[in-house]
Specification:
The complex is a heterodimer.
Chain A (H helix, E strand, L loop, with lengths): L1 H15 L3 H35 L15 H10 L11 H4 L1 H12 L18 H23 L2 H32 L4 H8 L3 H4 L13 H14 L11 H4 L9 H26 L14 H21 L5 H28 L7
Helix pairs in contact in A: 2-12, 2-13, 3-12, 5-6, 5-12, 6-7, 7-8, 7-10, 7-14, 10-12, 10-14, 12-13
Chain B lengths: L7 H24 L28 H25 L1 H6 L4 H24 L7
The chains are: A mainly alpha, B mainly alpha.
Chain lengths: 353, 126
């Protein structure tokens, strides 16, 4: 099997010659993006099914067996819809918004390690790259709100810009704690550090992952991630009862679909980040099972399920409550915890040798 | 030594991302119908006629948050290098206290600014 694969790779290498590195990179990128798009499609179905079950409904069950073809039907419908360009909108940048929303949500995946060695670009500044790319994602909402030249999108753009930058501070501080204990900005190394320690030797690996010693930061990161992706209960950006669909009001057809895809791939990205930083990435929770990609997928699915669960459980926060939580609770808590971790690592009780 | 060729796939991925971002719009433009009329293309305002330009004055607090954000985000960017070598600092006896107190001073100044912004009401929303 492996020999055959190597043979095929060699054949292609001979065929493409000097451009082979580019072609190989492109193949790997497609190998990441296509499964990701499939996950996004079925995450939308999972969301409707899970929330349906929590509200004692069935959820989509007509298109295909158990409604499994529903996302495909939704996608096809959106392709054949008209893309409306409002008269008063700024025509050029009107389309930059949705394109950027999806492009940034995809581009962040370049540095994500899926398993031992399964990473497209094993760069040393992975954490910085992820933070930078997700920050660029905020522009898509501001651009969409401004270019639409309509009141609901404009309000949504102001709200979301403030909300997302506020929670980025909390997220950044939580990451500072993770970096202190893992001493690297490389995502694979951050996972490796979590696979060492007393509990790993006892065969209880899940107790040595960052979530336990950095529990408050894990919660801050998780909640900030939900606020960062504008999901319920922090979804005032597109609160239906207040500002209709927020920045997406004026968009239709595929332009709207791009925002939708961007939001869901950002959700999956935040879940994978939570998994890598706090839940040990692809590491196995117990000693007698091998580390593998399956663990990463399972943990990510669990975090995604939390996203859906929170949406079905909590009522929407008011905007001033969101800002208070971000600035007056999370930021001081995080600064304090940086100090706590610092003192902990200085003391003889240091568990990260 | 920075290995720049490690970043080549990242660049390619960003370009592919942009292509994937633009392609659906082009597809929708080609496949979807186009039957515009004045009402359909007017701004959505829950059925009202849009009565003034949407690019109006906005609350100054959004602006304040943006400024404070820039400061804090920079501070965090400065914390990153320190955090990623903190293990080394801790393991060397001579640098241990120095490395820690340096960052305490840095965080202290940051905290003072934060308390000032809080006391001035820059973080309040009514």
């Amino acid at each position: 099997m492996e020999a055959q694969f190597l043979q095929i790779v060699q054949m292609l290498q001979g065929f493409f010659g000097p451009v082979w590195p580019l072609v190989y990179t492109l193949l790997k990128i497609v190998g990441i993006i296509l499964p990701l798009l499939l996950c996004v499609a079925y995450l939308t179905l999972a969301e409707r099914k899970v929330i349906g079950a929590m509200q004692v409904r069935l959820g989509p069950n007509v298109v295909g067996p158990w409604g499994l073809l529903q996302p495909i039907a939704d996608g096809l419908k959106l392709v054949f819809k008209e893309i409306i360009v409002p008269t008063q909108a700024s025509k050029g940048i009107y389309f930059v918004g949705p394109a950027l929303a999806f492009a940034t949500a995809l581009a962040a995946w370049a540095v994500v390690p899926f398993s031992e060695g399964w990473v497209l670009a094993n760069v040393d500044a992975g954490v910085l790259y992820i933070l930078a790319i997700t920050s660029v994602g905020i522009y898509s909402i501001i651009i969409a709100g401004w270019a639409s030249n309509s009141k609901y999108p404009f309000f949504a753009a102001m709200r979301s810009a403030s909300q997302m930058v506020s929670y980025e501070i909390a997220m950044g501080f939580a990451l500072v704690c993770v970096l202190m204990v893992s001493a690297s900005l490389n995502l694979s190394d951050i996972v490796h550090v979590q696979g060492k320690g007393r509990f790993v030797d006892m065969g209880l690996g899940f107790l040595s992952w960052n979530w336990l010693p950095l529990l408050p930061m894990f919660l801050v990161f998780l909640i900030s991630g939900i606020a960062e992706t504008n999901r319920a209960p922090f979804d005032v950006v597109e609160g239906e009862s207040e500002i209709v669909a927020g920045h997406m009001v004026e968009y239709s057809g595929m332009a709207f679909a791009l925002f939708f895809l961007g939001e869901y791939s950002a959700m999956i990205l935040v879940s994978v980040m939570t998994t890598i930083f706090f839940l040990g990435g692809w590491l196995s929770p117990v000693g007698f099972l091998p580390d593998s990609f399956v663990w990463l997928a399972a943990k990510t699915s669990f975090v995604l399920f939390l996203f859906l669960w929170f949406r079905a459980t909590f009522p929407r926060y008011r905007y001033d409550q969101i800002m208070r939580l971000g600035w007056k609770i999370f930021v001081p808590l995080c600064m304090f915890w940086v100090l706590v971790v610092g003192i902990w690592m200085m003391s003889p009780l240091n568990i990260w040798k | 030594m920075i290995m720049l060729e490690n970043y080549f796939p990242v660049l390619v991925f960003v370009l592919v991302g942009i292509v994937f971002g633009c392609a659906p719009i082009v597809l929708g433009w080609l496949v979807g119908p186009r039957r515009p009329y004045a009402e359909k293309n007017s701004a959505y305002e829950c059925g009202f006629e849009a009565f003034e330009d949407a690019r109006m004055k906005f609350d100054v607090r959004y602006y304040l948050i943006a400024i404070i954000f820039i400061l804090f985000d920079l501070e965090i960017a400065f914390l990153f290098p320190w955090a990623s070598i903190f293990k080394e600092i801790v393991s060397s006896e001579s640098m241990k206290m120095f490395g820690f107190i340096e960052m305490l001073v840095f965080l202290g100044i940051l905290l003072l600014g934060f308390i000032f912004a809080w006391a001035k009401g820059a973080l309040d929303w009514e």
